[in-house]
Amino acid sequence: MSFRTHDKQRFIIDSANDFTNRRISKRDFLRKLGMAGVGMSAFAAGSLGGFRSFGNMAMADAHGETPEDVANFLREAGKPFAGTTIRYTSESTPPTVVLNQLKSEFTELTGINVEIEIVPLEQVLAKATQDVQGQLGTYDLYYLDQAWTATFSRDTIDPREYYADKPDLAMPGFDFDDFSEPLVEGISLYQDKWIGLPFDIPIFTLMYRKDILEKHGIAVPQTYEDFTQAVELITAAEQENGIYGTGLQAKSGHYSLECDWSQAVWGHGGSIFDSDKMFSGNDAAGIEGLEWYMNLLANAPANSVAATWDGQWQMGASGQIALCQSWAEFFPGWNADDSAVKGLWEMTTPLKGPSTLRGRDAVGFGEIPNWGHQGGSSIALSRYSSNIDAAWLFLQWACSKDIMTRCTLAGGFAPMRTSSYNDPRILERKNLEGSGTTRHLGTVLETINNYMASEPDMAIWAGLANNEIPTELGKLLTGQDYDGNPKACMDQIAKLVDQQVAEAELR
Amino acid sequence: MHPSADERADNRLRLPRWMTSEHPLPWLFPCISLLLVFGLYPILYSLWLTMYKRNPATRMETFDPAWNWSRLWADERVWDALQVTLTYTFVAIILQLTLGMLIALLLDTDRKGFGILRALMTLPLVVPPAVTGMMFLLMYDGSFGVISHALYDLGIISKDDPLLATGSTALLAVIIVDVWQWTPFMVLIMLAGLRALPKDPFEAAAIDGATDVQAFFKLTLPMMSKIIALAVLIRGIDLFRVFDYVKVMTDSGPGTATETLTAYTGTIYFKSANFPFASTVAIFTLLVVLIVANVFIKVFKVRF
Q1: Per residue in A336-374, is it b (16+ CB within 10 Å) or e — as a string?
Q2: Total CB pairs under 8 A between chain A and B
Q3: Chain A residue closest to B257 (CA)?
Q4: Beta-carbon neighbour count of residue A246 at 10 Å?
Q5: Helix (H, G, I), strand (E, B) or coil at B266
Q6: Has this prediction a pTM greater than 0.90?
Q7: CA-CA-CA-CA dihedral for B237, B241, B245, B251, to nearest 10
Q8: Which of A147, A207, A354, B207 is deepest in the core (most CB within 10 A)?
């Protein structure tokens, strides 16, 4: 998810000025441009929300030390693979960007080179799809969004099995049990197989501008009803000042819209599939959720229908919105030193009720209805790689306790390992306001452990979530079709989805 | 002592007869090979793919030649995309041709400084389309885009209807980018045509008292008709397969308001991984281009 476009442009211009005025070296200039070139994702910002300070912070953490036992293991285990180059393609998520900066440490220890291609999420899907279709092995590791877990399950190697099968390459103290159990279940597990290691956990929480709520005497919303009232009140009162109740990631045809929609459906007691594996977004609860979402659009900046997570991030950082139920990883950037609203955002657990959640036995394809939509990802070992052992070493290093904690410190995102939340370095920043804060992580952990919702696990979900569902929703939300009738839109989606499920013989 | 002309001719490298210009095939072989590998093979492979029904869950493909074509026939998005593609092509070609001709007429002079102007005109052509798309995406942005803000200030659009996220404006906004980039191509062709026109008919018309406008419609346009037809054909085929601008700026949205046939092919291929159906839509696009282009060539008697 990328740092703000105008911030990126400003960063590039500043860097160019610094270079021409000889304030920085050519090497630094190229490094900075390289950093700017990778900003394709929302995190972006997050961490890069204070991009300049982030740069320093990340580099400081990059000089941290790998624990001695791990370093010794990597030196020894990596010897046979020195000079090998492993390739990995990923979205520009917080851990990936930070990992890209830390990877030289791994190369110094093992002699294994690592190339990380950072591209927008849809391109990651396209690259992985082509790679597995031809069984090319172009990439040794895949970055797999949770929505693609089932799609790629047969193309990856179960890391637990590989760990057991290759004791010589097993990192000491790796500790699979330290990965948060709900995250493993929601992100990396498909039919008892770990398709990779959990690597990133954006999850929906409720974020709010405390100054605006206080100004209007609004209590922090607890339910969808509270939220709607607060959003409508703030839009009515503040719209003239350029502030809206909320902001959305409602870009037509984009996965971000599907994420917003599924959160709304679950939150209103609905689900995507019923227990007969039929699409159920068109039932009463589903329609209620969609109507609620359509009402939010009227209380959000008009650009919401053109915004993905990047656009939504910009709305929050520029002070355009007062409340937002979205990815927790926005929070550090919105609180960064150069944010227009530094220190004004607070976070709490996602909205709950008044509807009742649909039970897991009432839904299909392993869907988990709950209050907080998760959008996590795994790093997976490609079955078609010709450098599996070298890639396996990197994968263990990237997902080790130390690196995950250091990625968190540098990027401000939420770690996948339980131990990271109690690491003294994390706790030290829990009251910090501004860049590098970890004061949101307690809420994130609570949401993961208690309220985490997860999309269906099915082999055609990647297509449905990225194409049919958000495209038809986009037609409705932009008035291109359905005459504002959510039921008509949902019925059409039901027809398209059920047809594909039947064709794929998944029912 | 210098060799005589006859001796020099004898010493010259003598190529076997089959390698002389009378037999061009061996010389063309590398080029033909490349065309076969990169042109013909992908088409044949796509055709072969169209004959298989793919189960996206199991990735099993079964031979069923009619499956994808019947699906294409029933798929409303294909016909919507065809309509968008035709609209895009038609509107863009009219705008580019009109502007191209007007600018070419203005630049068709040997006044001092116009040489530089003609060179500057070509600058948009060297910018990669994806970069152009990104550039305009920023300028169209509803929050900080310079074009959007100018249009707000002029009262032409409302802040509630972002250019690229509103069904009624998105397609035109993308077409304008295409026009910005490719009008110079039309200018170049029209300029070349104008410069090649004989002077005598114009001098005779001037003596007879014809105005510039009359000369343009009675002489310039008829004499340029073949060049115009050729330019329309080249740009038309190019426009029909537009992908970059749509992908970068709207990703076919809002809804499917800017979804062209190639964009839809990309969506099926990359998002749904249904390669046989994507190939079917691609072959369908190719067939439409072939038919339309051939009709155009016949009607306007285009000569290459």
Answers
A1: bebbebbbbbbbbbbbbeebebbeeeebbbbbbbbbbbb
A2: 114
A3: A480
A4: 28
A5: helix
A6: no
A7: 160
A8: A147
Are B195 and B104 in contact by the 8 Å Cβ rule? The answer is: no
Partners of residue A252 in chain B, C-beta under 8 Å: 165, 251, 253-255
- Examine the pLDDT at A46 and tell me if it is beyond 80: no
Average pLDDT, chain A: 87
Task: Tell me phi and psi for residue A244, to 5 degrees.
Answer: -110, 160
Range scoring the smallest mean pLDDT among A56-60, A386-390, B5-9: A56-60
Q: In chain B, which residues have their Cβ closer than 8 Å to the Cβ of A306?
A: 142, 162, 164-165, 254
Smallest Cβ–Cβ distance between A302 and the set B142, B253, B268 belongs to B142
Q: What is the pLDDT of residue B137?
A: 92
Question: Are the C-beta atoms of A178 and A418 separated by less than 8 Å?
Answer: yes
Average pLDDT over residues B76-92: 96
Residue of chain A minimizing CA distance to B162: A303
Taking contacts as CB-CB distances below 8 angstroms, the residues of chain B near A466 are 271-272
Residue type, B121: M
In this prediction, residue A362 carries a pLDDT of 96
* Closest C-alpha among B190, B300, B182 to residue B239: B182
d(CA A288, CA A56): 47
Q: Tell me, what amino acid is at B210?
A: A
- To the nearest whole Å, the CA of B59 is away from the closest chain A CA by 9
Query: A31-40, A96-105, B216-225: which range is least confident on average?
Result: A31-40
Higher pLDDT, residue A16 or A38: A16
A319-367 tens-digit pLDDT: 999 999 999 989 988 988 878 898 899 999 999 989 999 999 999 999 9
The answer for residues whose C-beta is within 8 angstroms of residue A411's C-beta and 6 or more apart is: A43, A46, A47, A54, A58, A94, A95, A97, A98, A332
Instruction: Output the average pLDDT for chain B.
Output: 90
Q: Does the distance separating the beta carbons of A466 and B141 come in below 8 Å? A: no
The shortest CB-CB distance from B251 to any of A254, A318, A463 is to: A254
